[in-house]
Amino acid sequence: MDMLRLRRIILVLLFLGSVILVFKNEQAYRQFELSFLDSPETPDWFTPVPIDKSLWGKQETTEIFKMNAEEDDIRLPNAIGVGAKKCGTIAFAYFLSLNPDFRRTGYTEGHWLYKDSQWKGGFQSYKRKLPTSESGQISYEGTPRYLVEANVPARAKAISEDMKIVVTLCDPIKRLRSDFIHTTLTTEPHAQEIKRFANISSFVDAWLPKVKNNIIENGEEYLTDIYYHDITASIITNSIYSHYLNHWLKFFPREQILFLDGEETLKEPYKTMEKAQDFLNIDNVLRKEHFFVNEETGYYCAKRPENMKKTFCLPKSKGRTGNLADPSYLELREDQVKALEEFFRPFNRQLCDIVGHSMSFYTDYC
Predict the structure, then answer these.
(1) DSSP codes of every residue in 326-349
(2) I need a labelling partner for 168 at 20 to 30 A (CA). Which of 83, 95, 121, 355 fits?
(3) Which residue out of 53, 85, 86, 338 is catalytically annotated?
(4) Vertex 90, ends 282 and 281: CA angle to 5°?
(5) 138 three-class SS
(6) Quick check: pTM over 0.90?
(7) 239, 93, 232: which is closest to 171 by C-alpha?
């Protein structure tokens, strides 16, 4: 065998060896990459109270509702909206009230069930907060704060064990932002404290560690009736939906609760209306053709089913987080967003079991 031919054979063998080496390295890399992706993520910082579906709807109420007035054209509610705060509870009621079989209170929010002084007044007191209605119509009262008030589920059950509950949820961080700016425009007890912060970023820096430590030290009991012992923290804790929903589900079975996605109410309200009308067993008169986008605000308006020439739009105040003169007031740093996502993660995971399906803000967990 001449030297030229030998050299060619050696070169071919070297080439084949390099190809095999590259292939093996590629396989090793892919195996590493897959094992990295499949590796468990960082453990949750907190383990919430486990969900026990066998207990749902079983707890009896010890509350007594005084039926000290007659039902006339004002009837007891057969449906209530309970929040969450700043997720679209009011927008839902405004739109659905275009259905003549859905009668909502003239008050934007009733704020009746959790107040002891009003509860003691019985139906005679409650009538002032309720709409007129006829037999076969839905009498509805909605207050976003009801979700987090510990005494409300028992009181709602005392009024009617068949009460239907409407819950609207939304992205916890987006809700936090909206709650923060909303509070600065109110006379609520913690408004002045919130106003002392230069922006939401400084608030999160100060309060997220406090809330986290309180939950670690005291468990979920810290979240109960937060408005009465640490109201400033409610800006954050109002987004811990699973804790409050677990409490509601002690009194009412899952089939009596409608869960709505606030993002869907905002972007595709006709889908929300269809679900609500089916749940409340009223005629589906609000459909996709009744809704259109208001070019001035970017939000949906609706045409009245009985007269398509008449329209209804949400109040401009509903878009306040998008209408700030200084948008940086509600900006969060990237590390803060990650910290908040980590904070809400263990509670959001539970929503898969509670709600039974994913929503726009926790699709990765179900």
Answers:
(1) -GGGG---HHHHHHHHHHHHHHHH
(2) 121
(3) 86
(4) 10
(5) strand
(6) no
(7) 239
Residue set of the binding site: 178, 300, 318-329
251-279 burial: b if 16+ Cβ within 10 Å, else e? bbeeebbbbbbbbbbbeebbebbebbbeb
Query: Which residues are annotated binding-site positions for 3'-phosphoadenylyl sulfate?
Result: 178, 300, 318-329
CB atoms within 10 A of CB 177: 20
Q: What is the torsional sign of CA 198, 201, 202, 203?
A: positive
Q: Is 267 a catalytic residue?
A: no
Which H helix or E strand runs over 271?
helix 269-279
- pLDDT exceeds cutoff 80 at 324: no
Per DSSP, the three-state class of 97 is coil
Residue 4 pLDDT greater than 90, yes or no = no
Return the CATH class of domain 72-355: alpha beta
One-letter amino acid at 210 equals: K
pLDDT tens digits for range 40-93 = 568 999 999 999 999 999 999 999 999 999 999 999 999 999 999 999 999 999
User: What pLDDT does 37 receive?
Assistant: 40
Neighbours of 115 (CB within 10 A): 14
